[in-house]
User: Fold Oligoribonuclease from Lysinibacillus halotolerans.
Amino acid sequence: MYKLLSHNDLDGVGCGILAKLAFGQDVKVRYNSVSSLNREIEYFLENDSPDTFLLITDLSPNEENEKRLTSYYKEHGNVQLIDHHKTALHLNDYEWGYVVVEEESGKLTSATSLFYQYLVYHQHLEESAAISEFVELVRQYDTWEWEKNENHKAHSLNSLFFLVSIDEFELKMIERLRTSDHFDFDDFEKKLLNMEEDKIERYIRRKKREIVQALVGKFYAGVVYAESYHSEVGNELAKEHPHLDYIAILNMGGKRISFRTNRDDVDVSEIAGRYGGGGHQKASGSSMTEEAYKHFVLNTFHLDPLHEDAKRNRYNLKESEFGSLYINRREDIFLLTLKDEQWLVERNGEVLDLTFSTYSECESFLKRNYEAWLARDDVFVEYLMSKVKAAKGS
Ligand SMILES: [Mn+2]
Assistant:
């Protein structure tokens, strides 16, 4: 007998699907949130037969259960943990732990891709084109590589995962992976998925109008409330606001926070760690602890949302040789200009005593300190006319 404790997201359920393909009736699978895993481990250690082989994927136990699992392993063997989270790397110190974040080729791993290798290596499962394609879609979604590769099928797979129940998803996928030569969606699913993508787009557009900016510790965070589509919301907001260090997505009902960044110089697994959570460098999560509540809810609730940059301008453009005009809620007027290959900021007519070697650094400074946005063309034209008037008058 086998027992698999896995995460309740697509990557975790991908492991469950592979386990059922490999072991059929001989495996019991339980999907967990990050917080419920430890209860399940304790239940297993107290109640299950030592003949049952325990597999844990895509999640890591707390310190106490690390100890319990280690002594259990010494006595019975029969434990294997497989994970790809950076915050779980220390579990490689145990014989029962196997954590790989990145393959030697530089390819990022997922729990499903590691577990697939494990099952094939131990001859529990035979490789097939359909399964390999499914595993790769899960991996690309979980590592967010799909976006760079424009592999929308990977994104669709995750959307489908959320459209149906976990049980239904499992059943559908197991059947398909057993019988198809290649992995694909059926026509009805394709129709559903198109509708879902439109819905996600509208949801993200709304969230773009709700995000607020807050300095938390030494980092500038974008804070937004969202119950669904955390990865998509986080990713789009991070792209929209590169001056922010990370995006904190608050799920008040679930009392959880997701952290996302697309920057290489920020590690959100450390941010989540501060509130007792963990994860990857670019994506992590934690519970809404009292401290987190204070930092992200209480201290930010009164703030006005960030304003988006004007998008349809023809004249007031970024990095323009005529200067780029920004405004903010306090009605400050900023002009970004290039002089002697350095970018300067003029605030309400006065040049600040700072220079920047790139436009993006200059803009980032402006947005972090003044919450300014690129003004619309009509504001720009009005500004230029007032300049001309002033010049004529003098
Ligand atoms: Mn994962």
In short: Residues 11, 58, 84, 110-111, 142 surround manganese (II) ion (CB under 6 Å). The chain has a mean pLDDT of 96.
